[in-house]
Amino acid sequence: MGVKGWEEAEIDRLPVDLLAHIFLFISSFTNLAQASGVCRKWREGVRRSLGRRESLSFAGWKMDGDAAARIVADAYNLKELDISRRCWSFQITDDGLYKISLAKCISHLTSISLWGMTGVTDKGVIQLVSKATSLQHLNIGGTFITDDSLFAIAENCPQLKTIVLWSCRHVTEQGLIILVSKCHKLQSINVWGMRVPINCFVDLLAMSPALQIKPRPQHHIFGSASPLPVM
Predict the structure, then answer these.
(1) Of 6, 70, 74, 125, which residue is most buried, by most CB within 10 angstroms?
(2) Cα 26 from Cα 174, distance rounded (Å)
(3) How far apart are CA 159 and CA 189, in angstroms?
(4) DSSP string, 95-160
(5) Per DSSP, what are the bridge partners of residue 80?
(6) Where in this chain does the record put each F-box domain (predicted)?
(7) Over the stretch 52-111, which tens digit does the pLDDT of each residue have?
(8) Nearest-10 Cα torsion for 52, 34, 99, 96
């Protein structure tokens, strides 16, 4: 048997579970896709490795909604999902969020980031959060959502602890009040760049005195020099 034949035989002896464990250390989706195309056994190894992941990030990768949804569908133990926009070539639309929301793992997610995803609207966000009933941490900063998304979050995410609404300028005082009134475990909210009156923060703190509003509103509004926590 030649060297090439011996190498192929050795590779063929690797059990699928061992391949899956090895593929867990590969973070590049390009490399995983290439590994998946080697043979049927490697494809199964990649699929099983996705099923073992608890954290998944698409940030910085060139990928559309269909490809992201297929990967998330195989990641059935997923707890944290980051599909934030960190490069101009990556963009998810409402249709992509809808397909991602169909994955079985969504109801078990504790953290989701959609930071900077300007291609999504209330329609896609509502589809996603309506299934994410275990959600504790949500970043939807830099998106064009409105109060409708906050109403859906308030109704479907009772475990929510932190939310980033950085520069969500279409969200109003009404959305914030509904969110805080229904999400009783909410500990922190980032409102930087939002167009809401300062009196709104007074109302939010009256409803939930322990709530951390980031960044800190002007302290004199509250009649105290004690600062609020800042991110």
Answers:
(1) 125
(2) 44
(3) 14
(4) HHHHHHHTSGGGGG-SEEE-TT-TT--HHHHHHHHTT-TT--EEE-TTS---HHHHHHHHHH-TT-
(5) 55, 111
(6) 14-54
(7) 999 988 876 777 788 889 999 999 999 999 988 764 455 789 999 999 999 999 999 999
(8) 120
